[in-house]
Every structure is written in structure tokens, then in C-alpha cells.
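Sequence in, structure out.
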Amino acid sequence: MVNTSEKSDRRVLLRQVAAASILPPAICTLGIGIFGAFGQCSAQGAGQDLRKDWLARWERNILQDTRNRYCDREMGAEIGWLVSPFLHGFYYSYLATRDEKWVDLLVDWADAWLHRGVKEPDGCLGWPKPDGASTSVMPGLYTDNLLGEAMGLRPVLSLCGCWPCTR
């Protein structure tokens, strides 16, 4: 359970990030000369310290959580709920920083997950769980979860440039 001071700190941080990252560019785009003449915003640099702080916190937290290596063991719906948040985090971290270490992490996690796939009766690759773990109405059967698989594949395809709106 998260205590209220942590929630409050998180909300303050989110407000600061939103104000620093959205407001100045929006004002510049509208051509309002509050931050500088002719739409060039000198105030965009004001949010750089906040951006660096947020990225440092993000990096520390996500790298600490990668030690659990969900990609090495999860199957079925857990691919979507436990693996895909990391894959998305790596993808968007790369977009935010252009640091290739995020690509390396995404490739490492995707490779670990994808190599554990099994050929299912329909001939397609899947990640089924035994005893209907994705649904309790299928005891004794293996079931997979197409939504979880799609959630995991989206950042992989986005990194490849195969997904719409990746630029």
C-alpha cells in the first residue's frame, strides 16, 4: 500500500512534468511571444533540469525492477500484464533519450520471451499456460492469451517501425 505522502509527491511531480513539458511548447506553437520572439522559446530550457531529474528517477526505478526478469518465465496473460510494461518502458525510454541501452534491454527481454514460445496445435507460435490459467473454465487444458501477446509485441513492432505513429 502506498502512503499518502508518496501519492502526494507523485502528483506534484506529474504536475511539474506536465507543466514543464507541455505548456512552453504549446505556447510557442501558438505563436504567443511570452517566452521569446517569433515563436522561439527560451523558456523550454527551464524544464530541462526537471526533465533530467525525472529521467534519472525513471531509469533508476525501471532498471531496479528489471531484476525480476518476468521475460524469462511468464506465459499467457502475464505477458501482457508483467512483461509488456517493461517492453513499453524500454521503447519509450529510447524515444525520450535516444540512448541505445534501452534498445538493448528491449531486445534482451523480447528475445528471452519470444524464444520460449511453443508451436501450438494450429501451427502458430504461442505462450500457453497449463490448466486454463488464463480462464478458470478450462481446467486440464492449455490456454494462451492473444491480448497479452499483442500487448507484448506492440513495443517490439514499434521499435522496428512497423507500427503506425512510431515517429
